[in-house]
Design brief:
binds magnesium ion; alpha/beta; binds threonylcarbamoyladenylate; 18% strand; 15 strands
Length: 321
């Protein structure tokens, strides 16, 4: 795989219908020209992503929503764009007829966001088109927050734009615009509290049935490491004997697990730092031959902690004891 920081070459690949993995402020994306249905189809094949799971379209200027969203565009879209773009907020709204069906999985809505990462913004601008990009991992697996995480999971990419580690570490917040306000479809880097200073945030149930999903990508199992991952809700409940497991806990609780290999996601307990390190540490643990199982302490579901806990629950879902 060709890797580097040549954004002009990356844009040339996109224009020619190629696939480019690139950094955003949340996670790395696997990008293609949103209006080239053949290139978009390659994304689904490369990720082994089911075609019922629609993609996010990335733009570099607010004006680009005119060709993506159906006119007239709800005023709340502009209010959110003004407040949070460029940045980690994805807006789902009625689509225009020019958006290819493969992008939206045939839905009547399309998801759009304007990333703040300078390399992502430059890539979209130089390509001259909106870029569709799911996270650059195999479907259902750990999200990539570094270029090496992309390399280890995907190989049929034309160029990997390396921008180091990402800033937030968890994906964008996905909101759907409704008549009365917005509904959070996926908690993410922008918190419900932040959103609610600009629009009404409607109550969203978190426990959806997999057969009846408001967002097709909201499966209960997702972001899964290759090794069993278990959640510790109360440290005292874990009866930990010596073994090959690793325990990911807060710095203060380290002392509770004397005989274990312990990792922490933050020195200070700062939840932003926990979010940044979550996928990176899970990647290290799944690659470490000395580790058989991973245990991770639950975090408080406040602010970005809600997104962190959403990822942890889904990552652990298929390993439930
Ligand atoms: O931070 C992010 O959002 C990253 C970076 C690369 O931008 N992208 C990302 O894409 O997380 P992906 O494909 O891994 O997740 C997109 C989510 C999925 O859950 C999908 O179902 C949902 O957005 N989605 C996309 N279009 C939708 C639509 N029209 N209606 C409802 N949900 C939609
Ligand atoms: Mg993803």
């Amino acid at each position: 795989m060709i890797k580097g920081n040549d954004v002009e070459y990356a844009a040339k690949c996109i224009k020619e219908g190629g696939l480019v993995a690139f950094p955003t402020e949340t996670v790395y994306g696997l990008g293609a020209d949103a209006f080239n249905a053949r290139a978009v189809a390659r994304i689904f094949a490369e990720k082994q992503r089911p075609e019922f799971d629609p993609l996010i379209v990335h733009i570099s200027s607010v004006r680009q929503i005119e060709e993506l969203f159906r006119q007239p565009v709800d005023e709340k879209v502009y209010r959110l764009a003004e407040a949070f773009w460029p940045g980690p907020l994805t807006i789902v709204y009625k689509r225009s007829d020019s958006v290819p069906d493969i992008v939206t999985s045939g839905l009547s809505t399309v998801a759009v966001r304007m990333p703040s990462h300078p390399l992502a913004a430059k890539l979209i601008e130089l390509s001259g088109k909106p870029i569709v990009a799911p996270s650059a991992n195999r479907f259902g697996k750990l999200s990539p927050t570094q270029a090496s995480h992309v390399e280890k999971q995907l190989d049929g990419i034309d160029y990997l734009l390396d921008g180091g580690s990402t800033e937030f570490g968890v994906e964008s917040t996905v909101v759907m615009i409704t008549q009365n306000g917005v509904r959070i479809l996926r908690p993410g880097a922008v918190t419900a509290e932040e959103l609610s200073t600009h629009v009404d945030v409607l109550d969203s149930e978190t426990d959806y049935d997999d057969r009846d999903l408001p967002s097709p990508g909201m499966l209960k199992s997702h972001y899964a490491p290759r090794k069993p991952l278990y959640i510790i809700n109360k440290p005292s409940e874990l009866n930990y004997d010596e073994g090959d497991g690793v325990i990911i806990v807060s710095e203060e609780e380290r002392g509770l697990y004397e005989n274990a290999i312990v990792r922490s996601l933050s020195k200070t307990g700062d939840i932003q730092e926990v979010a940044v390190n979550l996928f990176a540490v899970l990647h290290q643990m799944e690659d470490d031959d000395d580790v058989s199982d991973i245990y991770i302490e639950a975090v408080k579901e406040k602010g970005i902690g809600k997104a962190v806990m959403d990822r942890i629950k889904k990552a652990a879902y298929s390993y439930k004891k």
